[in-house]
Write a structure and sequence with these properties.
This protein is α/β, with parallel strands linked by helices and 186 residues long. It has a single domain, classed as Creatininase (Rossmann fold), CATH 3.40.50.10310. It has a four-stranded parallel beta sheet, with helices on both faces. The longest helix is centred in the middle third of the chain and has 18 residues. The chain is globular and about 50 Å long. The termini are far apart. The structure holds zinc ion. The site of zinc ion has 6 residues, from helix 2.
Length: 186
Protein backbone atom coordinates (compact mmCIF):
# COMPACT_ATOMS: atom_id res chain seq x y z
CA UNK A 1 0.00 0.00 0.00
CA UNK A 2 1.37 3.39 -0.97
CA UNK A 3 1.72 5.56 2.09
CA UNK A 4 0.00 8.80 1.13
CA UNK A 5 -0.94 11.55 3.58
CA UNK A 6 -3.80 12.74 1.34
CA UNK A 7 -7.10 11.33 2.58
CA UNK A 8 -8.70 11.29 -0.87
CA UNK A 9 -5.81 9.45 -2.54
CA UNK A 10 -6.55 6.27 -0.60
CA UNK A 11 -8.76 3.50 -1.94
CA UNK A 12 -11.56 2.49 0.39
CA UNK A 13 -9.75 -0.69 1.52
CA UNK A 14 -6.72 1.51 2.29
CA UNK A 15 -8.94 3.87 4.31
CA UNK A 16 -10.23 0.82 6.19
CA UNK A 17 -6.62 -0.02 7.05
CA UNK A 18 -5.92 3.57 8.14
CA UNK A 19 -8.96 3.48 10.44
CA UNK A 20 -7.38 0.48 12.17
CA UNK A 21 -4.19 2.56 12.63
CA UNK A 22 -6.04 5.64 13.96
CA UNK A 23 -4.02 8.58 12.57
CA UNK A 24 -5.29 12.09 13.28
CA UNK A 25 -7.52 13.25 10.42
CA UNK A 26 -6.81 16.87 9.55
CA UNK A 27 -9.62 19.02 8.12
CA UNK A 28 -8.28 22.33 6.72
CA UNK A 29 -10.78 25.17 6.39
CA UNK A 30 -9.76 28.33 4.52
CA UNK A 31 -11.29 31.10 2.47
CA UNK A 32 -11.15 33.04 -0.78
CA UNK A 33 -10.87 36.77 -0.04
CA UNK A 34 -8.98 39.93 -0.99
CA UNK A 35 -5.44 40.20 0.38
CA UNK A 36 -4.57 43.76 -0.53
CA UNK A 37 -3.91 44.88 -4.08
CA UNK A 38 -0.68 42.86 -4.08
CA UNK A 39 -1.66 39.21 -3.39
CA UNK A 40 -3.98 36.60 -4.87
CA UNK A 41 -7.35 35.92 -3.27
CA UNK A 42 -6.26 32.34 -2.43
CA UNK A 43 -3.61 33.58 0.04
CA UNK A 44 -5.19 32.04 3.14
CA UNK A 45 -5.59 28.68 1.42
CA UNK A 46 -1.99 28.65 0.13
CA UNK A 47 -0.58 29.39 3.62
CA UNK A 48 -2.95 26.94 5.32
CA UNK A 49 -2.19 24.08 2.94
CA UNK A 50 1.56 24.69 3.11
CA UNK A 51 1.42 24.19 6.90
CA UNK A 52 -0.76 21.10 7.04
CA UNK A 53 0.75 19.44 3.98
CA UNK A 54 4.32 20.01 5.18
CA UNK A 55 3.44 18.55 8.59
CA UNK A 56 1.73 15.55 7.01
CA UNK A 57 4.65 14.87 4.65
CA UNK A 58 6.87 14.58 7.71
CA UNK A 59 4.47 12.31 9.63
CA UNK A 60 2.35 10.37 7.10
CA UNK A 61 1.81 7.53 9.57
CA UNK A 62 0.40 9.88 12.20
CA UNK A 63 -1.89 12.14 10.17
CA UNK A 64 -3.88 12.20 6.97
CA UNK A 65 -5.26 15.38 5.43
CA UNK A 66 -8.72 15.87 3.97
CA UNK A 67 -9.19 18.16 0.96
CA UNK A 68 -9.39 21.79 2.08
CA UNK A 69 -12.80 23.40 2.50
CA UNK A 70 -11.82 26.40 0.35
CA UNK A 71 -14.59 28.88 1.29
CA UNK A 72 -15.30 30.60 4.59
CA UNK A 73 -17.34 33.18 6.49
CA UNK A 74 -16.46 36.35 4.61
CA UNK A 75 -19.48 38.65 4.40
CA UNK A 76 -17.41 41.59 5.71
CA UNK A 77 -15.08 41.33 2.68
CA UNK A 78 -17.77 41.26 0.01
CA UNK A 79 -16.98 44.86 -1.01
CA UNK A 80 -13.84 43.44 -2.63
CA UNK A 81 -14.40 41.73 -5.98
CA UNK A 82 -13.62 38.03 -5.90
CA UNK A 83 -14.46 37.27 -2.26
CA UNK A 84 -16.68 34.24 -1.68
CA UNK A 85 -18.79 34.24 1.50
CA UNK A 86 -20.57 31.28 3.08
CA UNK A 87 -23.42 31.79 5.55
CA UNK A 88 -22.14 31.05 9.06
CA UNK A 89 -24.83 28.45 9.79
CA UNK A 90 -24.17 26.72 6.48
CA UNK A 91 -20.45 26.65 7.24
CA UNK A 92 -20.91 25.19 10.74
CA UNK A 93 -23.14 22.47 9.25
CA UNK A 94 -20.82 21.83 6.29
CA UNK A 95 -17.62 21.51 8.36
CA UNK A 96 -19.52 19.41 10.92
CA UNK A 97 -20.84 17.07 8.23
CA UNK A 98 -17.33 16.42 6.91
CA UNK A 99 -16.05 15.59 10.40
CA UNK A 100 -19.10 13.52 11.31
CA UNK A 101 -18.65 11.49 8.11
CA UNK A 102 -15.04 10.74 9.02
CA UNK A 103 -16.05 9.81 12.60
CA UNK A 104 -18.85 7.55 11.37
CA UNK A 105 -16.26 5.46 9.54
CA UNK A 106 -14.38 4.98 12.80
CA UNK A 107 -11.66 7.65 12.92
CA UNK A 108 -11.49 8.82 16.54
CA UNK A 109 -9.21 11.87 16.34
CA UNK A 110 -10.02 14.83 14.11
CA UNK A 111 -8.34 18.24 14.01
CA UNK A 112 -9.97 21.17 12.23
CA UNK A 113 -7.18 23.52 11.11
CA UNK A 114 -8.44 26.96 10.18
CA UNK A 115 -6.64 29.52 8.03
CA UNK A 116 -9.00 32.53 8.15
CA UNK A 117 -9.80 34.73 11.16
CA UNK A 118 -13.58 34.87 10.91
CA UNK A 119 -13.78 31.09 10.58
CA UNK A 120 -12.30 30.63 14.05
CA UNK A 121 -15.53 30.56 16.11
CA UNK A 122 -17.30 28.69 13.30
CA UNK A 123 -14.66 25.94 13.30
CA UNK A 124 -14.72 25.82 17.09
CA UNK A 125 -18.48 25.23 17.08
CA UNK A 126 -18.19 22.69 14.27
CA UNK A 127 -15.57 20.78 16.27
CA UNK A 128 -17.82 20.79 19.35
CA UNK A 129 -20.69 19.61 17.19
CA UNK A 130 -18.61 16.70 15.87
CA UNK A 131 -17.71 15.70 19.43
CA UNK A 132 -21.32 15.88 20.61
CA UNK A 133 -22.71 13.98 17.63
CA UNK A 134 -20.14 11.19 17.43
CA UNK A 135 -18.04 10.94 20.60
CA UNK A 136 -14.89 11.31 18.48
CA UNK A 137 -12.22 13.62 19.86
CA UNK A 138 -12.26 16.72 17.68
CA UNK A 139 -10.40 19.99 18.27
CA UNK A 140 -10.00 23.21 16.30
CA UNK A 141 -7.01 25.51 15.89
CA UNK A 142 -6.02 28.57 13.84
CA UNK A 143 -2.23 28.44 13.27
CA UNK A 144 -1.82 31.79 11.50
CA UNK A 145 -0.08 34.71 13.20
CA UNK A 146 -2.43 37.10 11.39
CA UNK A 147 -5.25 35.43 13.38
CA UNK A 148 -3.43 34.54 16.61
CA UNK A 149 -0.67 37.01 17.52
CA UNK A 150 0.64 34.64 20.21
CA UNK A 151 1.66 32.05 17.58
CA UNK A 152 5.46 31.57 17.52
CA UNK A 153 5.68 35.01 19.12
CA UNK A 154 9.37 34.72 20.02
CA UNK A 155 10.48 33.66 16.53
CA UNK A 156 8.25 36.10 14.67
CA UNK A 157 9.14 38.87 17.14
CA UNK A 158 12.82 38.39 16.35
CA UNK A 159 12.30 38.32 12.59
CA UNK A 160 9.63 40.93 11.94
CA UNK A 161 10.49 44.30 10.44
CA UNK A 162 7.08 45.96 10.89
CA UNK A 163 5.79 47.79 13.96
CA UNK A 164 2.97 46.32 16.14
CA UNK A 165 -0.10 45.86 13.94
CA UNK A 166 2.07 45.09 10.92
CA UNK A 167 1.46 41.35 10.81
CA UNK A 168 -2.32 41.44 10.55
CA UNK A 169 -4.36 40.78 7.41
CA UNK A 170 -2.29 40.84 4.17
CA UNK A 171 0.62 42.51 5.99
CA UNK A 172 4.20 41.43 6.68
CA UNK A 173 3.46 37.92 7.95
CA UNK A 174 1.20 36.75 5.13
CA UNK A 175 3.18 38.60 2.45
CA UNK A 176 6.46 37.05 3.64
CA UNK A 177 4.97 33.57 3.58
CA UNK A 178 3.53 34.09 0.11
CA UNK A 179 6.88 35.44 -1.16
CA UNK A 180 8.39 32.20 0.13
CA UNK A 181 5.64 29.80 -1.01
CA UNK A 182 4.22 31.34 -4.18
CA UNK A 183 6.15 34.46 -5.24
CA UNK A 184 4.34 34.32 -8.56
CA UNK A 185 1.12 35.26 -6.72
CA UNK A 186 2.57 38.39 -5.06
ZN1 LIG B 1 -5.17 36.03 5.20
Amino acid sequence: MARTWRYDEHTWPEIKQRIAEQPVVILPVGTIEDHGPHMAINTDNVILESMVHTAAQQAPDDMIVLPTVPYGLDEHHMDFPGTISINMHTLIDYVSDVGVSVARHGFEHILVVNGHGSNHPVCDLAARNIVLKTGAICASMSPNAAIDPTLAQDVIGAERKSKPGGIAHACEYETSLMLHLRPDLV
